[in-house]
Each structure stands twice: as C-alpha cells, then as structure tokens.
Amino acid sequence: MATAIDWHAEAAKLSFRSQAFINGKYVPAASGKTYDNVSPVDGKVLAKVASCDREDVDRAVKAARAAFNAGKWAEAAPKQRKRTLQKFADLIAKHADELALLETLDMGKPIMFAKGVDVMSVVDHVRWFAEAIDKVYDEIAPTGKDALGMITREPLGVVGAVVPWNFPLLMAAWKFAPALAAGNSVILKPAEQSPLSAIRVAELAMEAGIPEGVFNVVPGFGETAGQALGRHMDVDAIAFTGSTEVGKFFLKYSGESNMKIVSLECGGKTPNIVFADAANMDAAAMGAASGIFFNSGQVCVASSRLLVEEKIHDDFVEKVKAISAAFHPGDPLDVNTRMGSMVDKSQMDRALSYVEKGQKEGAKLIAGGRQVRQNSGGFYVEPTIFDKVANDMTIAQEEIFGPVLSTITFRDTEEAIRIANDTIYGLQACLWTNDLTKAHRVARALRAGTVNINNTDGGGVEVPFGGYKQSGFGRDKSLHALDKYTQLKTTYIKLA
Ligand code: NAP
Ligand code: MG
To answer: Which residue of 197, 206, 244, 310 lies most exposed, with the fewest beta carbons within 10 A?
Structure first.
C-alpha cells in the first residue's frame, strides 16, 4: 500500500527557484531588484523573487527572437516537436508532487486539487497539443485547374503569455502548450503572487530538449514586466488571462505599439440556472456548491449567480447550504481539505467587502461571510451564501472572485434567460433540467462561450474555452487554440 505523503515535511524540504529564466539560464533582474513572495497558507515569505522590468523583458524578447530565427524549434518537423513536448509532459508528471506543493504554498489551494486537478491537467494539455501537432493539415483552395492556392499555417514568432494566480501553471499551459507546439518562442509573465511553479517548469522544458531561448519566464509586476511585454515592438502576440480591466490595457498597449495580436480571457459572472424539472436535485446542489466554492471561488467561470425556479427555492437553497459546510476552510496541506486560503490579504478583503455591500443593498446573508483560521496567519474566508439577491445588486453584477454565492429566484424560462444574460460578461453559463427541448432552447439563448447542461465544470482540453462580450475573445484549448498562435499564408501559383 502506498504510504500517505506528509506534505508539511515535504514543504519543509523544498527549495525555491526564484529568478527569471532567459535564454536557457536563471538570471537575476537586471536592476537586481526582488520582491517578497508571501504564502497565503501562513502569511510568511516563501522567497525573494526577481522583479523584472523593461530591460529583462527586452533581453527575453531578443533571446526568443534569436531562437525563433535560428529555426531549431520553429522549423523542426512537427513530429520532432511532438516528441520533445511529450518528454516535457513526462517530466512535469514526474515532478507532480513538487509542482503541486509549489502551487499550494504560493496561492493557498488545497494540495489535493493542486496535484489532482492543476498539475494533472497541465500534463494533459502539454501531451494533447504534442500529439495534435503532427496531425493538423494545411489546405488547398478550390481555384480550378489553372492555379494552385496553398493555404499554410506558420508560427507567429514571439508570443508573450500573461497569466493570473488562480491556476498558476494551468493558465500558463493553456497558452504555452499550443504556442510551443505551433513552433513559437514564448515569454511567460506569471502573476506576482504565484510565480514559483512557472519558474521551475522552465527548467523542465530545457531538460526535455526545448532549445534555449524558446521558453522564457519573466516574473515581476503587471505594471512593469507585464506592460513591457504588452508594449514591446518585437512581440508578435499577447495571450492574456486575467481581469477585464487589465485585458483592456493590453488592447491599448497593442494599439500604441506594434499592433501585436491580442487574445483575451477575462472575467465572468456565470449564471447557474436550476429548473424545477432537474432530474437529480442532489447532483444540482453539489454542482451549485462546488461551482462557487472550488478554489475559494477564485475561478473565472465560478457559478457565482444561482438562479433557482421559485417553486423549488426553499428546498434547493437548504441543500446547497448543507453541502457548503464541507467547504469550510482548512489547512491547504491537509489532503482532506476542500477549500484553502484566498490568494492574499487584498483578495480576502475584497471578498469581505462584497459581503458587506450585499447586506447593505438588502440581500439576505444565510451562510458564512467571515474570515476564519486567523491564527494560521493566512487569509481564509467561509463559504458564503446570499439569498434574495436582485440581479441589479452589486454582488450580482461584479466579479467577486471569492467564495460568495448570490441566489436569485425566477418564475419562468424567459425570466431565467433574461436574468442570465443581464451581465457584461459571457464566459460560461450552466443549466439543470431533464427536458431536452428546454435544455437546447435555453442553451441557444444564453450568450456565453460555454454552456454546461447538468454540470458546472465544463470539459477538458478537447473543447474550446473563451468568452463572449467583455469576457474577451480568442479560444484556449482544443485545436481552435492553434488559431491564436499561427497565421495563414496564401501561396498562389499560376499554372496556365
Ligand atoms: P489581473 O490583475 O488582471 O492580472 C493578470 C495578469 O496581468 C497578472 O500577471 C498581472 O500581473 C498582469 N497585470 C496586472 N496589471 C497589469 C498592467 N497594468 N499591465 C500589464 N499586465 C498587468 O488578474 P488577477 O487578479 O491576477 O486574476 C483574476 C482575474 O483573472 C479575474 O478577473 C478572473 O476572472 C480572470 N481569469 C480569467 C480566466 C479566463 O480564462 N477567462 C481564467 C482565470 C482568471 P500582477 O500579478 O503583477 O498583477
Ligand atoms: Mg493581480
């Protein structure tokens, strides 16, 4: 029998890579500056991390461009890139415990999910794009016999990936796996709160055989390193995941620099519609609770608006409330913990400020709402449920990015659709019903990039993911992700 891992003991043994990774080497920031990277598990400083700025980004871009032009990666046969990326995936899997621990310490998520969800999905993504890349064909246009119109895909060149802290390595992998598979060089800017797994994984990429300069990591702040990437004249594309506010900055940076391609995965305010004819109310209640409390609600697709049909309201809300108890925050390093810490104090304060706003605007707090585990030194918030929420209240309109659920009641299908779509966001929507016609009719009417029927957690790497409206544009995952990292070339040959 496998013995259980003592994660506290493993954590005590861990050492941290904390420098930038440029052109195949760990280097300090050109300025020599570092910042304190705090663990929200206990509020202690984990490491002093290189604080990169313009000069570091410029060095990374030069290395990435030189590597791209040298062609060792960009011009390698797809099957060769496949083999190298498969090795990369194997190395990530081999170091799963270490990487999971880095994620838990860095941003406070339970170790069980860091390993079983985050790191395993990263392995899946890298492997999937590795396996895909020697199976995508180019096109021949239907020109007639007097010409040959070839439509081929080429890598873009230098791709900047700017990612958030909620799934540090997974959000990065959504970008770097397809970008590398397509032959680009990548410069990754992890979130300031959670750079450790990205910094470590760069070394594994090299070990797998990805040539130096092809995969670079520049830790630092958004306003400095992030902005420098966004404004660089020799970056071909930015793939961004983060808030809608910062997503708009990248459009501006692009317009004010070299018109680089920008793709944006931004915020969300997922409606989760539960109809009275749902087949399994227990499953729906579990989906409603895990859809908002997983990762402490720090999920772009968190189903933060629970729309319940009036006639089942009382029983259903009672069920969700009962399940929420299982998400009471615990030690992230304990394998039994289902909800850990929030990423930092400011994110905790933000969630708590929405609890206050909800009460002020007249919503009814029926569970949670407080900070707990103060003695730990970390930033833990109870699973929180509001009832009697109106969709125009602040807590129903703004993305909280915390474990705060807003319950809204509806009378009929038309009202449910109207409330669901009454948001600036359109990343995901969910619905529960046993009526096939209703399910399809409502799914069509919902303005969201993903509609989940009888679940709240969507699919894996095989399905595209991205937003409508101010949730952004461009798609991660699936073969459609390759569209973001390639451009089409037409080669037109006269044959007559
Ligand atoms: P954020 O503040 O927008 O930050 C995202 C990234 O952008 C970070 O690396 C950040 O660096 C950087 N950044 C911040 N300000 C910048 C600036 N002025 N110029 C250039 N870069 C800048 O988002 P977050 O707080 O890390 O993450 C939460 C948000 O991400 C939520 O809105 C959530 O919905 C969204 N999200 C979306 C998806 C999706 O797929 N749609 C997935 C996950 C999360 P710093 O770390 O230094 O701030
Ligand atoms: Mg941030």
So the answer is: 310
